[in-house]
Amino acid sequence: MSSLSPPPRAPLPAGERAGTSAAAVAGAAGAADAAAAREVPDERLAAAAAALAAALDAQVLGQQAAVEVLLAAYMAGGHVLLEGLPGLGKTRLARAFAAGLGVGFRRVQFTPDLMPSDLVGTNVFDAGTAGFRLLRGPVFTDVLMADEINRTPPKTQSALLEAMQERQVTIDGESHPLAAGFFVVATQNPIELEGVYPLPEAQLDRFLVRIEMGLPSRGAELELLRRAVAGTLDEAVAHPAVLTPVEALALRGAAQRVHVAGELLDYLGRLAAASRSSPHVELGVSPRAVLGLLAAARGAALLEGRAFAAPDDIKRLLVPCWAHRLILTPEAELEGHSARQLLEQVAATEPVPH
Q: CB within 8 A of 296, min separation 6: which ones?
């Protein structure tokens, strides 16, 4: 048996298993869903993740790499920042992902005049009861798509930041919990710089991964044209759910079940140290970034049906997890260096455990 394989283990205690009460299901029903999610076996989670990946590949053509990273981030309990040119299918991917999970989906177009109350909600006066009642905003959902997040002012960005980090929002001084499986897919348009509010490093760090969506292959684009001619292009998104809500709740954070060998932890630490010590780096990855890569690698392992993480899982997710967190020196940027190039060089030079 490989040293990376997990030793025999006892069942996880209930408190360590994925899933808690879902905000979308109230009272006893929510508690029942959480209890059922804790009982979903590892084998079913791996099969469900693979089935969801296959369904997304069939609906969002030519974006297999993006689908795999998106799923790994979801299973790791993090949030995703999608970047790509207009028209590559970012909204389609997020909508199809939520439909496949069988959970709620809301999309918010971020604009310069979007206020925090437009996102989280507000208390309104009800004349019938002569009192205030909470009017919930679109953030009260399972999968939230924050489209063009860098077009809205920092105040609204901060409201979303609290929702992402704390899984709750504050309205008139009162905290309101969000769904246990709350997941944010934010998008940025990398080619437009006018009228935008760049995300600060602290907020970028809250995204577990940044996915750069590229153009589809020639074959995928040809299939896209065939579906358009046949009139079946839009039918692909209107598909039945691949998972039940209980399985989706269990899948959120399922990466915690994956074994990680000590040699792999040492390898991860060496990658972090090497990236920080580069003369081209002004600000290296934080411990939170290292923990995030560990969680994402465990999610990638589960997606491939393995109960243990491997070095390739870390190497494959190194750029999506760390590239948006590294800050290069001005001299390095002038010389044409990029965070992706630096991380790929680090991965190529560090010895891999066996």
A: 69, 72, 73, 76, 78, 208, 209, 255, 317, 320, 321
